[in-house]
Design a protein that fits this description.
homotetramer; binds flavin mononucleotide; two-stranded antiparallel sheet; about 350 residues; alpha/beta; 13 helices
């Protein structure tokens, strides 16, 4: 096989996807400064191996939000996976099940959340986008609870949802056949009408963006733990913890939200320092190898999520591809742990890395 | 349309301009070190978005020199806009009017300042180059006052006015049809004659360069507020404030004055620190996107001016191009504000950015 | 000749080796981040020459582990040198003998250690990989002692032994004719059988990785000094010294072990600081010129080893090539010493270098 | 003309010189790390212009070693200028005379020092290489004194005199017609015979390298001030000052001596700090523009020397070329001074520059 490491799915996917779809999936917003920053941040960190440790009892298990996971690699929520493969999220779920991986299903999945749940994956969370109307939001929450999802991941960095410049330049249009499986029966709210002098951004787009009140309301209307995705600031992290949020995901949406924000990995240490050692902090954006997972864990993450690797592997070989990618990624992580003398995740401490000289 | 963001006018303009004209407009002086530095400075700054803020009452209004502006993006003074479009400054003025933008008309405009003023743009300032003879300078000042310009922008970093190496290598010569509309009736002073041993620079070129005395004289001869353009040093900024100048523009002339000076953005924080929070400080040089405007505001600017984007948009589509560019730029700024949780300009504070790791 | 400096063998070797073999030898593990880092680290260091010193009594002699060496450049242990030249390690040994160089023979040499020893090289050490079974390890140790090797170099950073991605992509397979000359009579241990849920890394691969106990056992079963190769951490270095190890080699296996670890040269100063001035510390990884040797010595190494240069020179011209390369390398070192005013190795002090500005 | 700035002679010269000669002149030693570093150092420094200063009485005069110079740009000693132009050093001297420039004639000039002196250049120094035999050295010194040279520049960083790798690879050989005009009547000393075990560097090459004793001897045998060229260390600078040397030149021989040493410009500040404000310190290596001269002066140099620019201009247009290049360079310097508000050299102070962000 041509696939020697998890990242190989990235290059290979370009041959399995129409150029338009590839641009949509691979691209980042704006000038892709954040997309590049995500990778550069990982490349600046270097691993300091420890010699002669006995790691033969080693494993990667952890407990997160009271749930026990086999390993700290989760499948990030990704919209419209039917773009990459007809079975889309169904295959991702099947791969998750086969590899003991926790899946996060997107509000904008091409298949309904109930169908995804039926693929049998035990560990699964539901990623929630606030809907223009609270009823719709509540409907999603209740369906997720009913289908057995164990946590809600509320994504807050995506007030703007538009294909990237790269995707637009490549001529990407969402195919008619790809639909938001969870939302097809939701009523479409009337479009916002702007008065003269009003801003398309402030009075238009942002009218539907959730606020602290909405988050509060949500927590009062679900029994599931609520995790917030898209945090980059220490003060936001602290405020979310204080507000009763169960955990956070340091993320810049894989460079797809506001271009020009820092790499997640660069934002991580300050966030971890703010919330303390015991609060659940996950990270995504830029993870392409097991060594990246290791670095994120050293710098303060309890676990990571993989976005593009997942959809690239899906495009290449469906459920098998995703499962294989996850197996590779996990073994790459284990190898880093083994060579750094870390038998378990808590042994991955700050002294396991250093920073590259400039 | 191919124009998805304001910066797209930059690439597109190359197809709308003769190569010689493009070289003249796009180029910077010398080896273009400062031209590059301007962009690199913006790229080193990263935005830290804030979550969950309610910005639905947001707007971009500000008061500058007692004048209220709709937004903090001004049209920089650009000589000879007829190079880019036959209607040149007339079209820029029309676009300014249509988009509530403050225009700064150049001494070296291809159309007379009175014609530009007649396009109806309410907010307008006049950029003044000191003339070899005080009478000529005074004539310009009085015409600007009479035509309704509300401030004088005195540009001080352009003692040398010569097409860049890039322009000269491209074979650029100013077409005979492009004339300095404001100066055609001015008498040409006799050329400076150098004695043996004298320097073409010190005793030649610099004989006409304005000094503190000239600036003083100017302020005594106008009722308009005087703004100085081309400041890069904190001590100069402080001295200008002390001398009664109404505000300053941190600028390196878009990399067209002395090559090798720092990026304006890098010079900004020290200047702001020197003059204090309440003194009007604007910035230009290198602004290509709304996120750049946001970054400049975080680092201490009250507003910014756009030079090349303006003339590129003018070249592509005249008044419509400039208006469209300004609309895009403003929305890009608003989006940064919204995602950074800033409903108004004063909420754009230092903690909204961080610096990229080297 | 086309060979003007030692590093010229690097480029030339590409013409003398099949592409597959070249990929195997030249490549580094993973994305080759460490391979690149090794070179970048040397390039960041600058030499500060001293003027007017009399160095006419200069020489490069040193005493290491009680043995006197003519110069501080050793031949690193390299597996399977028959890939580069039919006579492989035999020719390297002959070159070592001719140039007063200390040779380190690999456990995985293509020729038996006894044959190598018979080439007459006086200074020679044996590089030991722990074998799956202690009997095999002991057999190697005793044969090395009997053959006159004067030290054991235990390599600890290569728990994973697999051709690099570059080699695999180039289609490299070990030719059937190239065999581990020292191990052909060793029994192959039964493959590790994993139980369900066990990790191929932790419970598989790492089961055979040596631990502190194994190192202890080794030191009790040999009368040779034991040197550990593959150290990158100051705490490991200190622990090894405390455990009775005779010396260490700061090395990342030439970027062939875990990808993403720091350059050896960057790791060196902290290691030296930890173990004190008198403890034997060697370095390899990235040495391509005499100036690199000089820099390593300034930053704390007593001597260096050359890996790829050796096998490249071997590929180009066998024993003659290796001898010529060593002669060039040594003269390059002497020239640095002479121009830096260092007549002997102890005069190579910290003030002989500075670090390049970023 | 195609020549718009002094540096343009660099690119143009490639068309006027045989490829071999160009490689010899343009190249640096080794991997050209120092050659590159020289330019990078200048590019890291940024000029901070001052506004509104009256510089109409400005000039560039200075007093150096009791001699008054019109400007702080000297012609560096360059061997074998007949490679670039048949009249070689004669034309350089004529250009020096025409532009009030101080010339430094090389020991290895293709024309005898007396012929060069006869071209009429008033300000001239003689660059001395110590010869294998003291008689030869003394002969050179006495001829230089007799011919009216006003200082001796002793170059100490060139113990190794060999065409660079670049030159050798290009196939450069010194043409038979190009001879060391000053040395043709000198006896050639017998070649050094090495004993077995002796080093070609320490006991060979370095036997003829001057030491502190030789420098002492020289100062006792000349009435000219002695300047040392090739200093990069503060401690050497201080020792030279203490030994009675009249001034020093911070130089790395334009990247042609030991490769891997720092840029002269990076070494300058520490050297200046060590010797104090009043001691004559010059700089060369990497100067390509008037702004470089300005930067060197800010960072501590009293004057600079130009090497390659001189020989490139010579290749392009003989005496006229060199004179034109010097005129451009000087005007470029004056322009920097004027825009930085410095009317005279002493006004060029540390606050006139800043360092580029990394
Ligand atoms: C094609 C695509 C679709 C995505 N859709 C969603 C989504 O629906 N909800 C969400 O919270 N994040 C979404 N993301 C962001 C991912 O959850 C994740 O933050 C990001 O992909 C991580 O960066 P990586 O791709 O470098 O691993 C999407 C990302 C991609 C690439
Ligand atoms: C073609 C061109 C002409 C210019 N003419 C003037 C001018 O007449 N007066 C002036 O003060 N600045 C002039 N400038 C400088 C601009 O006002 C402004 O400082 C600069 O363009 C800002 O940098 P930017 O182009 O990167 O936005 C000119 C700039 C350009 C590109
Ligand atoms: C082809 C090859 C084979 C190697 N085999 C061994 C080996 O058998 N044992 C060992 O300890 N190191 C081995 N190494 C690592 C070298 O000993 C040394 O650490 C490395 O080559 C130094 O880096 P350099 O190649 O940049 O000089 C090998 C390296 C190469 C390139
Ligand atoms: C072709 C060439 C020949 C040189 N010959 C001499 C020489 O004979 N004596 C000497 O002291 N320096 C010599 N140098 C060094 C110059 O004096 C000077 O230090 C160097 O060229 C400055 O760097 P630049 O070329 O970047 O200006 C030579 C340099 C070049 C390029």
């Amino acid at each position: 096989s041509d696939i020697l490491c998890a990242q190989d799915y990235e290059a290979l996917a370009a041959h399995f996807l129409p150029a338009t779809h590839h641009a949509y999936i691979a691209g980042g917003s704006g000038f892709e400064a954040t997309l590049r920053a995500n990778r550069e941040a990982f490349e600046r960190v270097q691993i300091l191996p420890r010699l002669l440790r006995d790691v033969t009892t080693g494993h990667t298990r952890l407990t997160l939000l009271g749930q026990s996971l086999h390993h700290p690699i989760l499948l990030a929520p990704l919209a419209f996976q039917a773009l990459a493969h007809p079975r889309g999220e169904l295959d991702s779920a099947r791969a998750a099940e086969a590899t003991d991986t926790c899946l996060v299903a997107s509000t904008l999945s091409s298949w309904p959340l109930e169908d995804i749940a039926r693929e049998g994956c035990v560990e699964k969370w539901f990623q929630l986008y606030f809907q223009p109307m609270r009823d719709s939001t509540l409907d999603l929450v209740q369906r997720a609870e009913a289908a057995g999802y164990r946590a809600l991941v509320v994504t807050l960095d995506a007030a703007v949802q538009r294909p990237s410049l790269r995707a637009q330049r490549a001529g990407f249009r969402m195919p008619d056949t790809v639909r938001p499986g969870n939302l097809i029966h939701h009523a479409t709210p009337p479009p916002v009408e702007l008065e003269r002098g009003q801003s398309r951004i402030f009075q238009g787009l942002m009218r539907e963006a959730p606020t602290w009140d909405d988050l509060d309301w949500l927590m009062r209307h679900t029994r599931l733990p609520v995790i917030v995705k898209g945090v980059l600031r220490a003060d936001d992290a602290l405020a979310l913890k204080a507000a009763g949020v169960a955990g956070i995901i340091v993320s810049n949406h894989g460079g797809r939200a506001l271009d020009g924000v820092p790499a997640s990995l660069d934002a991580l240490p300050a966030v971890r320092a703010a919330v303390g050692a015991d609060y659940p902090v996950l990270l995504d954006s830029g993870v392409r190898a097991g060594s990246d997972v290791f670095k994120a864990l050293v710098l303060g993450a309890d676990a990571v999520l993989v976005g593009r690797l997942q959809v690239f592997a899906l495009a290449v070989a469906g459920a098998l591809g995703v499962a294989h990618m996850l197996k590779l990624l996990r073994e790459e992580l284990e190898l880093c742990m083994a060579l750094a003398g870390c038998a378990t995740l808590p042994e991955i401490t700050a002294d396991c890395v250093t920073h590259r000289h400039a």
